[in-house]
């Protein structure tokens, strides 16, 4: 292999490592979309995979430093219906609006999911990336 090919390969490997990450699903909060143990590929190269949008599945870091997987339910400025507002939100305050620079995320399996209803909106800087590929067990 020539030095130019090796350099290109190393460049691609560095790009991939900086912009992509594999995550293994832990738990059932995203059933039926993802089973426990499934492997996902996420990307933070939004210029390549598109910006985060409502309905996308993202991986974020929770308060304990654990990576968790949730679906984007609301973007900044979106209104959240009263069934899905944060637990500590006072409904007499009016409609809940997702604050600036945050996302509102929910698990697909709402009965068991700990999500923005429990921990509130998620700042953008806690998002690792959006899911771009899944591989089932």
Structural class: alpha+beta
Proportion in helices: 10-25%
> Strand portion, in percent?
25-35%
CATH topology: Umud Fragment, subunit A
Q: Provide the CATH architecture.
A: Ribbon
- Trace the largest sheet across and list its strands: 1-2-9-3-4-7-8
CATH superfamily: Umud Fragment, subunit A
Topology, pairings included?
Layout: H1 3-19, E1 20-24, E2 39-43, H2 46-49, E3 57-61, E4 67-74, E5 79-80, E6 96-97, E7 102-106, H3 116-119, E8 122-123, E9 127-135
Antiparallel strand pairs: 1-2, 2-9, 3-4, 3-9, 4-7, 5-6, 7-8
Description of the structure:
Helix content is 18%, strand content 31%. It has a single domain, classed as Umud Fragment, subunit A. The chain is built from 3 helices and 9 strands, in the order αββαβββββαββ. With 137 residues, the chain is α+β, with helices and mostly antiparallel strands. The protein starts with a helix and ends with a strand. It has a 7-stranded antiparallel sheet with strand order 1-2-9-3-4-7-8. Strands 5-6 form a two-stranded antiparallel sheet.
What is the structure about, briefly put?
With 137 residues, the protein is an alpha+beta fold. It has helices at residues 3-19, 46-49, 116-119; strands at residues 20-24, 39-43, 57-61, 67-74, 79-80, 96-97, 102-106, 122-123, 127-135.
